[in-house]
């Protein structure tokens, strides 16, 4: 492999001369002597055998070739700065990858906002996001397939902190028989109608959360599928309020006047998988999640 004729330090010196308007100004900005800046730029031009600067009085201007080459060089300089920052963060213990498992009931708007901020705070940490249902979150943590989780249950042997409460509301289509009863709806009434249930994605100890024991039960794999079926008049379900709010506003879905309460509050917990060994990236994301969770309460 041929060796490189030029160095990043030479291109950095050239960029500084152009950015700051002269050799003296570049030397001051880089905390170098003016003679060393002149030497670096002169050496650069001689090594590529191409004039890059034209000096007019005390001002230095790029030639056409200099402009083209410096544009590409600045990309290399940016990459080099990022590489050094990555090395610094890795040396400080920042994780190269973070595995986050989130219950599907967690509000997507909050999740996206948190990840957007995290991408700015930890731009060099890869994120692996998995969405699960019910026991799927704790199972991923116990199987060491997650560095942190947001779920409805705290696994045995772990500590968790409540991020926020998700209200689940009993809903049905406006023309559904449960709505047409015109009176408070009891558990026996609910058992006579199709209950749409989201299947637990966990395989070791799956739960039938919210199932009332009705023989008429359809099981789906996602909350979105449940919302679609209920909005289509195929049954009733307890669904996160943030998901059904648009349908409630439009009048497509209507809250069921359940005697024992039509809203169930489900806390979602933030739990770390590595405990005291939690790294800076995980701590950073947790802090963002906690802040946004407090705003949602």
TrEMBL record:
Annotated HTH lysR-type domain residues: 6-63
PROSITE patterns reported for this sequence: HTH_LYSR
Residues annotated as signal peptide: none
Keyword DNA-binding found: yes
SUPFAM superfamilies: Periplasmic binding protein-like II (SSF53850), Winged helix' DNA-binding domain (SSF46785)
Entry keywords, A to Z: DNA-binding, Transcription, Transcription regulation
Example GO molecular function: transcription cis-regulatory region binding
InterPro entries hit by this protein: LysR_HTH_N, LysR_subst-bd, WH-like_DNA-bd_sf, WH_DNA-bd_sf
Pfam families for this protein: HTH_1, LysR_substrate
Family: Belongs to the LysR transcriptional regulatory family.
Protein name: HTH lysR-type domain-containing protein
Organism, scientific name: Neopusillimonas maritima
């Amino acid at each position: 492999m041929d060796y490189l004729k030029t160095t990043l330090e030479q291109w950095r010196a050239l960029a500084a001369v152009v950015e700051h308007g002269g050799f003296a100004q570049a030397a001051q900005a880089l905390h170098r002597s003016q003679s060393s800046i002149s030497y670096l730029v002169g050496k650069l031009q001689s090594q590529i055998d191409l004039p890059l600067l034209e000096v007019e009085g005390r001002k230095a201007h790029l030639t056409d070739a200099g402009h083209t080459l410096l544009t590409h060089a600045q990309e290399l300089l940016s990459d080099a700065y990022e590489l050094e920052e990555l090395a610094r963060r890795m040396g400080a213990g920042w994780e190269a990858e973070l595995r986050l498992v989130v219950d599907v009931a967690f509000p997507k708007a909050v999740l996206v906002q948190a990840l957007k901020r995290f991408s700015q705070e930890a731009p060099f940490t890869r994120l692996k996001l998995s969405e699960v249902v019910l026991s799927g979150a704790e199972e991923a943590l116990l199987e060491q397939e997650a560095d942190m989780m947001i779920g409805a249950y705290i696994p045995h042997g772990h500590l968790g902190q409540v991020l926020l409460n998700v209200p689940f509301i009993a809903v049905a289509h406006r023309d559904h028989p449960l709505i047409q009863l015109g009176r408070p709806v009891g558990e026996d009434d609910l058992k006579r109608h199709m209950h749409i249930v989201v299947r637990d994605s966990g395989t070791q100890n799956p739960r039938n959360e919210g199932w009332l024991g009705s023989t008429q039960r359809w099981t789906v794999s996602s909350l979105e599928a449940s919302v679609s079926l209920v909005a289509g008049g195929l049954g009733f379900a307890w669904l996160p309020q943030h998901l059904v709010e648009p349908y409630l506003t439009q009048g497509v879905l209507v809250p069921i006047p359940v005697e024992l309460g039509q809203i169930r509050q489900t806390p979602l917990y933030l739990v770390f998988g590595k405990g005291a060994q939690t790294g800076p990236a995980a701590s950073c994301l947790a802090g963002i999640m906690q802040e946004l969770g407090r705003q949602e309460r």
